[in-house]
Amino acid sequence: MDPTWHADECLSCTLQGFRERAEAQGTPAPAATAIWRGFMVEGAHPSVKPDERRCTEIVGDQDTRKFALRHEDGAETESVLLPGVGKTGRRRTTLCVSSQVGCAMGCTFCATATMGRNRNLQTAEILAQWHCATHELGASIDNIVFMGMGEPMDNFDNILQAIKVLTDGAGPAIGARHIGVSTVGHVEGIERLTQAMAAGGLRSLRLAVSINSPDDERRSELMPITRRWGLDEVADALRKWIAAGGRPLLLEWVLIPGVTDNPQYARALADRFGDIPCRVNVIPYNPIEGRDWIAPDQPTIDTFMQAVADTGMRVHRRATLGRKAGGACGQLITASIRRRTPAR
Ligand code: SF4
Fold it and tell me: Are residues 144 and 94 in the same domain?
């Protein structure tokens, strides 16, 4: 049978959406179901043209696997498979997906920022990362985090549709409680995600917000988004998330020696966010090219975490994985794009 469907037509739709599209073109619902499920669950179907994106696995370390996807227009994104252990002791795999090619947010601790924003990823291009990891690299994915290249809230419609496809029980079937969206504090996006979460089906979605500084002045130097939305506005948006029934939040803190590691900052963090159900996730800084900052040593990490714990806030350390392979938090940048796009 000659293929009649493009891979992206499956990747961008839930089963219901694909059936409606297929029925409008004269394909009966049972055949449409077989096509969509064949491509999404089995990895291929004779009626779907094979996905022509090139998937290249890049060297990993500590069991992480970083891979690059070259999309149809030649743009590249990176994704990372991260090993972990769940609460029951079972091994779990998390896929960190990109939502944009590059990023416009300009966070100074992040390699992706040096690319600037090239473009948003379409829903199918986000799902292609899951499809490639599952069916080409053979990974069994338990969790998805939108923490790769790009600010997810800056590409809201496509990431929301991607979450709907990922949670479709007939296809990827990844529960909303296993999906996390991480933002720099894009208040408009947080408010839209709150509405979508509360509307049903996504109540257990996880939301993480990158904080990193005790006040707007210092934060503006690290995260230019602060000039648009200050920490008070971020805190208000997070209170609305909780009031609408959202799960406790993750507040991310990238720990950079000499920049964000002052133990007194923990008190300022608690003063502003202490009334919001949350946990502080300390992320030891991962060095990137072009910055003199170094990774914190263990005593620095311990001191800051103790300072947070002393305020009464829950605190956790993010495992450092994939640093040598350039696949750790804040390190994602594609070499070919770096060559094309001058660093700012
Ligand atoms: S940390 Fe996230 S939002 Fe900030 S520049 Fe990097 S990819 Fe963009």
Answer: yes
